[in-house]
Specification:
The protein is an alpha/beta fold. The chain is built from twelve helices and 13 strands. A seven-stranded parallel β-sheet has the order 3-2-1-4-5-6-11, with helices on both faces. The longest helix has about 30 residues. The structure holds nicotinamide-adenine-dinucleotide. The site of nicotinamide-adenine-dinucleotide (NAD) has 29 residues, from helix 3, helix 5 and strand 5.
Length: about 425
């Protein structure tokens, strides 16, 4: 075969053109791979696809890495917070019965975050009722009822009962009032308002919705009694201008209001005259005999007795009181009823019993007597026995032991809020003791 000059030129030109095309193709392909060729991505028909991403520079990558690190740290912090919060919420509510709509009641407990109120709430809740607590947290604490937070039968309303309240309920236990001398003497005018205006608001609500009301009155309506033990028929011996008058007279007016609403407005009322009560969740620093003595004994301090120690008191355990309140509310009895434990001890005896139960070496010492301190206090509970078939069951030492246990834990609390001392009944039997 003979190559002409013209044919040779054509071949050389074709070769150069082919080399140029190959070079161009390589450059284009290398640019593609620098921009980020993603392998393994396929199109709808299953063919390999080349995905082109915009080039990412190093600075951008570093800043993204830093952001990722900060976010990771935040997630760890949030997880720790969540764990902390979860540890404060009881995983399981105490056992609650189911009641159908005919038997289930809507019950308002004013002062339900306080010592007595919270134990009452425990029983009503475990029975299966819907419970609404109204409290201004003057002496009450959320901690006392927090084991019910979120339960479908439970509601907590932050409200001062001195102001009117509009809700629909079947029964009202009216307990809102400071109960210990340092608390009610702290603001005497407010104590009087709570027991007069507060009671008017509760009775007005009961009148409007047709609810039955239980008024938590007190043995203090007997003042410094000159009849012993005190029956409900005793009218009392109260100093109307003494330091305790704001409470004693406040409660006496509260009783008067109740019977006025009953007579004039047909409101169904019952009145419990509550005697000294003790138990877990009582205030550590309420200045009353039981809490003072337990605290002093647990801290190995001297146990102080005001006066000569021969004055007497009778103390009931809180679950006995709550049983009494509930049977009274469910009875048809309308006159005031004493709810207390008639087993009487001198203050001196109490000091010894508590010191022995705690097992410390505290000495018992006497200090000056306080003004208007009643010398004898013991309920006559014949009425409660006869009409309610009620009497206290918990022996003093059993109740005191439970209370000492609670106070011991309270004193051992650490600085961490999450490690606080919460008294939670696991089932109805336990809350009744
Ligand atoms: N604990 C006793 O030994 C005893 C003895 C006799 C009578 N009581 C009566 O029983 C009731 C409960 O006593 P406690 O020992 O549980 O006292 P507490 O102080 O523990 O409870 C009273 C509750 O009422 C709340 N409260 C006070 N004023 C209020 C207001 N204006 N509005 C809304 N809530 C208010 C407080 O915050 C607290 O939660 C009181 O009415 C008291 O007078 C108690």
């Amino acid at each position: 075969m003979v190559f002409t000059r013209r044919k040779m030129r054509q071949c050389i030109f074709l070769g150069i053109a082919t080399i140029l095309v190959i070079c161009l193709y390589r450059t284009w392909a290398s640019q593609l791979s620098y921009g980020g060729k993603e392998s393994g991505e396929v199109d709808d028909e299953g063919r390999d696809q080349i995905v082109v991403r915009p080039p990412v520079d190093k600075e951008e990558t570093d800043s993204l890495t830093r952001e990722l690190e900060v976010t990771r740290r935040k997630v760890v912090q949030l997880e720790q917070k969540l764990q902390d919060l979860e540890s404060r919420i009881p995983l399981k509510y105490p056992d609650v019965k189911y009641l159908n709509y005919k038997n289930r009641k809507r019950i308002l407990v004013t002062g339900g975050a306080g010592f007595v109120g919270s134990h009452l709430v425990d029983i009503l809740m475990t029975e299966g009722h819907e419970v609404i607590v109204v409290d201004n947290f003057f002496t009450g604490r959320k901690r006392n009822v927090e084991h019910w937070f979120g339960h479908e039968n439970f509601e907590l309303i932050h409200h001062d009962i001195v102001n009117p309240l509009f809700i629909e309920v079947d029964e009202i236990y009216h307990l809102a009032s400071p109960a210990s001398p340092p608390h009610y003497m702290h603001n005497p005018v407010k104590t009087i308002k709570t027991n007069t205006m507060g009671t008017i608001n509760v009775l007005g609500l009961a009148k409007r919705v047709g609810a039955k009301v239980l008024i938590a009155s007190t043995s203090e309506v007997y003042g410094d009694p000159d009849v012993h033990p005190q029956p409900e028929t005793y009218w009392g011996h109260v100093n109307p201008i003494g330091p305790r008058a704001c409470y004693d007279e406040g409660k006496r007016v509260s009783e008067t209001l109740s019977y006025a609403y009953a007579k004039q407005e047909n409101v169904r009322v019952c009145v419990a005259r509550i005697f000294n009560t003790y138990g877990p969740r009582m205030h550590m620093n309420d200045g009353r005999v039981v809490s003072n003595f337990i605290l002093q004994a647990l801290q190995n301090e001297s146990i102080t007795i005001y006066g000569n120690g021969k004055q007497t008191r009778s103390f009931q355990y809180v679950t006995d009181l709550v049983d009494g309140l509930i049977v009274l509310m469910r009875s048809n009895y309308t006159l005031p009823v004493n709810i207390g434990n008639p087993v009487e001890h001198t203050i001196e005896e109490f000091a010894e019993i508590i010191r022995d139960l705690v097992g410390g070496k505290s000495v018992i010492k006497q200090v000056a007597a306080v003004e208007d301190d009643p010398q004898r206090r013991k309920p006559d509970i014949a009425r409660a026995k006869k009409y309610l078939n009620w009497e206290p069951r918990v022996p003093l030492k059993v109740g005191l032991q439970k209370t000492i246990e609670y106070f011991r834990k309270e004193l051992a609390r650490s600085n961490h809020h999450s490690q606080r001392n919460v008294f939670v009944p696991r089932h109805a039997a336990e809350s009744k003791l």
